[in-house]
TrEMBL record, chain A:
Residues 1-145 form the AP complex mu/sigma subunit domain. It is a peripheral membrane protein. The keyword Cell cycle does not apply. The keyword Protein transport applies. It is found in: Cytoplasmic vesicle membrane; Golgi apparatus. GO terms for cellular component: AP-3 adaptor complex; cytoplasmic vesicle membrane; Golgi apparatus. The lineage of its organism: Eukaryota, Viridiplantae, Streptophyta, Embryophyta, Tracheophyta. This is AP complex subunit sigma.
UniProtKB/TrEMBL annotation, chain B:
Belongs to the adaptor complexes large subunit family. Part of the AP-3 complex, an adaptor-related complex which seems to be clathrin-associated. The complex is associated with the Golgi region as well as more peripheral structures. It facilitates the budding of vesicles from the Golgi membrane and may be directly involved in trafficking to the vacuole. It also function in maintaining the identity of lytic vacuoles and in regulating the transition between storage and lytic vacuoles. The lineage of its organism: Eukaryota, Viridiplantae, Streptophyta, Embryophyta, Tracheophyta. Keywords: Golgi apparatus, Membrane, Protein transport, Repeat, Transport. It comes from Linum trigynum. Pfam families: Adaptin_N. GO terms for biological process: Golgi to vacuole transport; protein targeting to vacuole. Residues 888-900 have a biased composition (Basic and acidic residues). Residues 901-913 have a biased composition (Basic residues). Adaptor protein complex 3 (AP-3) is a heterotetramer. This is AP-3 complex subunit delta. It is found in: Endomembrane system; Golgi apparatus. InterPro entries: AP3_complex_dsu, ARM-like, ARM-type_fold, Clathrin/coatomer_adapt-like_N.
Length: 166, 935
């Protein structure tokens, strides 16, 4: 079971947080702070695991990957394989890359809900349901199609940026 | 500008989008929180709008702020529910995201989504169904799961793979929250295992079974043939990893299953190119198939490959695998000992920790001394955090099972002393516990303990380190309790009362004072003894057994200290009238001011000491000089002192954890009486006068060990270093200390004493690498000749209650009923799933009540039930008796809920008939759920 997915930048700002068991916001904030505190103290070129029992309770493992300005962090229990989780981070990032063409932090900042859509296709309620980024892309495109279809039916966009973009 | 009640047209027309908020946040340098609260205010207004777009945009912004800026959004729960009911997909999606991010089982409005979820689960739009399933898998509680089980059941047969896959995924939540869903969905779940045409489905099902089996593997044993088929046939690494996880749980339950899977797993391990799968194979073999020697050998070979890999992740996992195998096959670790030792200095913290764990796993009676020496040495050079991890693991390994691996306690005690002096040591509490524990348990080591304690107490620098205060407290207590082993009690008194003790916390200071009291009594006692005996024999004192033995050991252990032994000391420990006077003055000076302390512990002890000196002073000062009255006065003094001395010299032993419970409560003692009245009584009474101390005279005099100090045994001074520290300290605080006459000439030689924290170990820091290498060569050789001179001393162990009892596992009600349901379904004891689909919802409400009470009983029962199925050859008689006992169980359960009882009987009835059909009454292999695989 996967317990949490976090994406944060190298300043410790969260970019995406998903906890598969309910946690109050204060706890979430504390956890992100603690995890970041450990991550930023670690050298490059060391293994990608981190002791997580003290943060997430017994039987917790944590892997992370550092890409450019972002940390991708997965927390899980003994029903998952550590190396497979590292691969899964890779799958997630590859999908983002396909979706945004050379993904960078800004894409992730501005595409909050799309990020959730992608992640939900890969991890479903804590279980890994899809590991092929091509399959994920198919569904994500389908969802985007649905979204734009429903939007075109709607009235004139009312948001400021909606006006500006015309 | 905020028109509070109804949003103005401008506001709703120019609503800021999520992008605007994100941009706004990015441009805020300092006042981010002000910006957030402003946006929040807008959101609160906009979210009330009746326009679906305005509302969903507001909710989207709120969800964003919730997960990025940690803003509370529980207040918006109802608005989120409104959003999912909109027909527009975008709005619906925003609502679902908000719900799954912020709802919990206890969210009050959660039940309101039940209908909307059902509607979306039945939707024709695939992505809408997905949204609803995702939502259910995140927030489903008992009621939601019960209500929506039929819909999920339908979706499990959906022709659309993505939907079907998610429906299977959500089953895990259903089973977890509503175990009766098993009776509906389980069959279809098992059938999905065989849909080899669509890999995503198999992957999803296996994932669900992996989670289920990790909680209660026994219930899924009957499915072993299906899992085995996947293990052999599947080419998907994800699926294979999950299947291996399942077998890791199942194999220990069924030896024949283990035999069957060993071969395919080994084959998989050697053929696969994926490191993750290979590692999973290794882990499965090491955890669950460790009896299969050849498989373990193969796995060890693969571990070696991991260890030499460049990737630190693989090296770490390799070491991790070794740690798994260590308890059963230590040879696999020993084969890699060089690598393990080398990894201690790896830059990677994970690798370091793991290799430390492995080093500790290799520790045995014969090499513990060498390993600890190297590790302590290594700890002094590590960064503080790792240093403490090392110290912690040394402490826990050595104290494991009442110091099982320690033979030479003198060595261990001095190691503890050495560890206390390591600069970053923060293990004060643990060291304190062990010092006292060893003192109580191991009689033979007390002289050495006292020596170590004395060295710690004498070093004024240590008092400044708060981490050491607990250790100093232990040292003070030991020196007070076993003061008879102290060579120079006067010196001990001086260090216990040195000015820097003001740095100690009150609780520790109280221990210091108590120990000073004990030492004082001891000094006076031996002074009076010697004074009496010196009338008869000269200065040479009669020497009782205990002290001579202790000093023999003493010189034995420390006589080899080279040059020091030659140049040592003076007859310090012979107590002269002068030193007695000095002591009493010291007490007046150091303890006197404390009598006004605000800490009650300190004050109490101070008053005790002062009261005693008040009493003894007049008697003693007379006895110091006039020759003629001496006898009479001395007799009086020694009577007083002896009483106290006897009080202190009774032996304290370790106490069992359960000792308190064994004390019977006396008749007529009311333990639970309200003591409120007592306050009135206590409040009015004055504290008792402190100067009067009364001591009970009923002490066992034979038990008391009075120690006479012999001057022949004084050649060796245990540690001139700490004495020199004291000397230096005296220089600094010259005003305070009385001159140390005789010490000076000796110490002139080494006045440049080493700083407090430097280790005394002869090993220099530079040759550490060499050390490690040497350690690798020598200490792990299995056939090391043990050069034990002494036998292991007696360690007092209590029969019971030495350690805290491990609280027995409380059976979890939920899992219980889940596995019960699974078993029922697997045994085919239930009616058709379809009829149940409708029944389940109605049934569950009424059943809930009775079930809770029954759980404990049923579990017992179920275990029994499993036993008879586990597939071992069973004696029919035994079988029968078991059955009858089960029947008894059922009968005993009368007070349980009616409904549950009936059901259970019903089940047993069926079960019995099944047995009757399948098992002929001869010695047969009892019906096993996995026959085709195992036979």
């Amino acid at each position: 079971m996967i317990k949490a997915v976090m994406v944060m930048n190298t300043q410790g700002k969260p970019r995406l947080t998903k906890f598969y068991e309910f946690l109050p916001v204060e706890k979430q904030q504390g956890i992100i702070r603690t995890v970041f505190g450990v991550l930023c103290s670690r050298a490059e070129n060391v293994s990608n695991f981190m002791e997580a029992d003290s943060i997430f309770g017994p039987d917790s493992r944590l892997v992370y990957k550092h890409y450019a300005t972002l940390y991708f962090v997965f927390v899980f229990d003994s029903s998952e394989n550590e190396l497979a989780m590292l691969d899964l981070i890779q799958v997630f990032v590859e999908t983002l890359d396909k979706c945004f063409r050379n993904v960078c932090e800004l894409d992730i900042v501005f595409n909050y809900s799309k990020l959730h859509t992608i992640l939900d296709e890969i991890i479903f309620g804590g279980q890994v349901l899809e590991t092929s980024s091509a399959e994920v892309m198919k569904v994500v495109e389908e969802i985007s199609r649905q979204e734009s279809a429903s939007n075109s039916i709607g009235l004139v966009t009312k948001t400021v940026s909606g006006w500006r973009n015309r | 500008m905020a028109s509070s009640s109804s949003p103005s047209l401008m506001d709703s027309l120019f609503q800021r989008s999520l992008d605007d908020i994100i941009k706004g946040l990015r441009h805020q340098q300092a006042g981010e929180s002000a910006f957030v609260s402003k946006v929040l205010e807008e959101v609160r207004r906009e979210i009330k709008s009746t326009d679906s777009h305005t509302k969903s945009t507001a909710l989207q912004k709120l969800t964003y702020l919730h997960s990025i800026c940690f803003v509370d959004m529980s207040w918006a729960a109802f608005h989120a529910i409104e959003c999912i009911s909109y027909p527009n997909f975008t709005h619906k999606k925003v609502g679902y995201l908000a719900i799954s991010q912020s709802f919990q089982e206890s969210t009050p409005v959660i039940l309101l989504i039940s209908n909307q979820l059902r509607k979306d689960l039945k939707s024709n739009v695939e992505v809408e169904v997905s949204l609803a399933l995702e939502c259910l898998s995140r927030i489903g509680n008992l009621d939601l799961c019960r209500d929506l089980t039929p819909e999920v059941f339908t979706l499990m047969a959906s022709s659309r793979i993505p939907v079907r896959k998610k429906a299977i995924g959500v089953v895990l939540r259903l089973f977890g929250k509503y175990p009766d869903a098993v009776r509906v969905c389980f069959k279809r779940l098992v059938e999905s295992l065989e849909s080899s045409d669509s890999p995503p489905i198999v992957s999803a099902v296996i994932g669900v079974f992996c989670e289920l089996a990790s909680k209660d593997p026994k219930a899924y044993l009957p499915l072993a043939p299906e899992f085995y088929k996947i293990l052999v046939d599947s080419r998907n690494n994800w699926v294979l990893i999950k299947v291996l996880k399942i077998f890791t749980k199942l194999a220990p339950l069924e030896p024949r299953l283990a035999k069957k899977i060993v071969e395919p797993i080994c084959e998989l391990m050697s053929k696969t190119g994926a490191k993750s799968l290979m590692f999973e194979c290794i882990r499965t073999i090491l955890t669950s198939l460790a009896e299969h020697e050849s498989a373990v050998k193969l796995a060890a070979g693969r571990i070696n490959e991991l260890l030499i890999d460049e990737d630190p992740n693989l090296r770490y996992l390799g070491l991790h695998a070794l740690a798994i195998v260590a308890p059963k096959h230590i040879w696999a670790v020993l084969e890699n000992k060089e690598f393990v030792i080398k990894s201690l200095s790896d830059p990677d913290p994970n690798i370091k920790l793991e290799s430390l764990r492995l080093v500790m796993a290799m520790v045995s009676e014969s090499n513990v001394v060498e390993i600890c020496r190297v590790l302590v040495n290594y700890a002094t050079k590590s960064e503080p955090e790792f240093c403490n991890v090392i110290l912690g693991s040394i402490l826990s390994t050595c104290s494991n099972n009442v110091y099982e691996i320690i033979v030479d306690f003198d060595w261990y005690v001095s190691l503890l002393g050495e560890m206390s002096r390591i600069q970053h040591c923060q293990k004060g509490d643990e060291i304190e516990n062990q010092l006292i524990d060893i003192g109580l348990r191991v009689q033979d080591v007390r002289p050495e303990l006292v020596r170590v304690g004395r060295d710690l107490l004498m070093d004024p620098a240590l008092l400044g380190n708060p981490f050491l205060h607990r250790i100093l407290s232990a040292a003070a207590w030991l020196c007070g309790e076993y003061v008879e082993f102290i060579r120079n009690p006067v010196e001990l008194m001086e260090s216990l009362l040195q000015p820097r003790t003001s740095l100690l916390p009150p609780s520790v200071r109280a221990v210091y004072l108590e120990s000073a009291f004990k030492a004082l009594v001891f000094c006076l006692h031996s002074y009076l003894q010697s004074a009496t005996s010196s009338d008869h024999s000269a200065l040479g004192l009669s020497d009782p057994g205990v002290s001579s033995q202790s000093y023999d050991e003493y010189s034995g252990a420390h006589g080899e200290n080279g040059e020091e032994s030659g140049t040592t000391l003076i007859q310090e420990n012979h107590i002269t009238p002068d030193s007695v006077l000095r002591l009493l003055n010291l007490i007046d000076m150091a303890v006197g001011p404390l009598s006004g302390s605000y800490d009650v512990e300190i004050q109490e002890r101070t008053r005790n000491i002062l009261g005693f000196t008040e009493l003894i002073k007049p008697v003693l000062s007379d006895s110091l000089h006039p020759q003629d009255e001496r006898h009479k006065q001395q007799a009086e003094a020694s009577k007083m002192v002896r009483l106290l001395h006897d009080t202190f010299s009774d032996e304290l032993g370790p106490v069992s954890m359960s000792a308190q419970g064994r004390v019977p409560v006396p008749d007529g003692l009311v333990l639970y009486e309200n003591l409120a009245d007592l306050e009135a009584v206590c409040g009015s009474s004055l504290p008792a006068s402190s100067a009067t101390i009364s001591f009970e005279g009923s002490h066992n005099v034979e038990g008391a060990t009075s120690i006479f100090i012999s001057d022949q045994k004084e050649e060796s001074e245990p540690s001139s270093e700490s004495t020199s520290l004291l000397a230096e300290h005296r220089k600094r605080h010259g005003l305070y200390y009385l001159p140390s006459e005789k010490n000076t000439e000796h110490h002139e030689a080494n006045n440049d004493y080493p700083p407090a924290n430097e280790l005394k170990s002869g090993v220099t820091v530079s040759n550490d690498a060499q050390d490690l290498a040497k350690l690798a060569e020598q200490s792990f050789l299995p056939k090391r000749k043990s050069k034990q001179v002494k036998a292991r001393p007696v360690v007092v162990k209590l029969d019971e209650g030495d350690v805290l009892p491990i609280s027995s596992k409380i059976p979890q009600a939920k899992d219980d009923s889940l596995s019960e349901a699974v078993r029922d379904v697997l045994l085919g004891n239930e009616a058709d799933a379809d009829t149940l689909t409708q029944k389940a919802a109605a049934d569950s409400v009424s059943r809930k009540k009775g079930k809770e009470k029954l759980n404990a009983k049923e579990q017992e029962d179920d275990l029994d039930h499993m036993d008879s199925q586990s597939g071992t050859v069973q004696n029919p008689v035994k079988e029968r008796s078991k059955r009858s006992s089960r029947k008894q169980n059922a009968d005993e359960g009368d007070h349980g809920g009616d409904k549950g009882k009936q059901k259970r009987r019903h089940r047993h009835g069926k079960h019995r008939t099944r047995e009757g059909v399948q098992n002929p009454p001869a010695n047969v292999i009892s019906q096993t759920p996995v026959p085709d695989l195992l036979l």
